[in-house]
Amino acid sequence: MANKTAPDSARRSEKSRRAIYDAALALVGEVGYQKTTIEGIAARAGVGKQTIYRWWASKAEVLLEAFLDLSAQAAEAAARPEVVGEHAEYEIPDTGDLEADLKAVLRATVDELLDPKFEVPSRALAAEGVVNRQLGTEFVGKLLEPQLQLYVKRLRAAQEQGAVRPDIDPRIALELFVSPLAQRWLQYTGPISYDYTDALVEYALYGLAPR
Amino acid sequence: MANKTAPDSARRSEKSRRAIYDAALALVGEVGYQKTTIEGIAARAGVGKQTIYRWWASKAEVLLEAFLDLSAQAAEAAARPEVVGEHAEYEIPDTGDLEADLKAVLRATVDELLDPKFEVPSRALAAEGVVNRQLGTEFVGKLLEPQLQLYVKRLRAAQEQGAVRPDIDPRIALELFVSPLAQRWLQYTGPISYDYTDALVEYALYGLAPR
Lengths: 211, 211
Prior knowledge:
- Chain A is mainly α and 211 residues long.
- Chain A contains eleven helices and two strands.
- Chains A and B meet through helix 7, helix 8, helix 9, helix 10 and helix 11 of A and helix 7, helix 8, helix 9, helix 10 and helix 11 of B.
- Chains A, B: This is TetR/AcrR family transcriptional regulator.
């Protein structure tokens, strides 16, 4: 909608910005974080280096925004945004059935993790984050943690509804189903599928011990 | 014991082998997997390149054995080996108290993950494995999976003892407490401590839902 009434200069800027994001994600996926440069991104996007420096101070900043944009696109594709003020915010659905809601969101995550458009640049960035604590911490704080906080919110609602024990720390609890999927994806420790994430949710909610 | 009666040549070989392992682990921690070379390992270990090629075909093979040796040292330090035939094998203790046994082994893992001797080379290798599927799969299969199978064995014993539900898949179940710790360590998604791993074990065994 906004584009229809935007002036030409704004539309050109938006087009350049998108070209820069695409170039940055493609390049980091191909050559890795270390060898990705502002010059390389500019050349691939077909813009001048100064165009990039006008908007961002470093390649880390370009990549951070490119990933935020990629996540927003994925969320939009999954039709999960709720527009709040100017920002699209994302929520884990609350149908009152925690097990079903968690299974649905984890199934969507499986699809995203297996989408090459997401997977290739994400792996490059994750690999750098493992050995570069500053980058890892910054990207996790800005990209991953906000997504994890959606689980915290949903689990808190479940606690209020009596579906999760009140003494559970939701920030730790979410890791019982999120981290196994993340590790299988990151480290190739096993296949990922809907059956797998469904099992994780069931095991986490009802425990391994006999009830 | 064996060293006392070993001929001088065997003792020299053992000394060279250990020097090569140490050099390989130090180098990969400093410059990463990509920039680690047989030449660099040989120079640092003070041996000829041919000495390395006599025993190993590639840097991946040297590093794999160096990590296996490092893990064996860590396990010996934790006094967990049971000598079976010629090989030291490692087991998760079975005191009959699954919760206590899992907490103990995860606390030992926290110590290992925070030990720089283990952490620095392990991060370098893990980072490469994220973007290099062949290497990741090989190293996980030879280094990580055998450790995960110790949990499978302990959980199967727990199923026989009635402490874990019989319909649970132990290979998935172990991920509820192992993967969260792995992800916090790999991706800096949160602090790791004994309290944290204790909580993971409790949540996994008894579930998040009210009982």
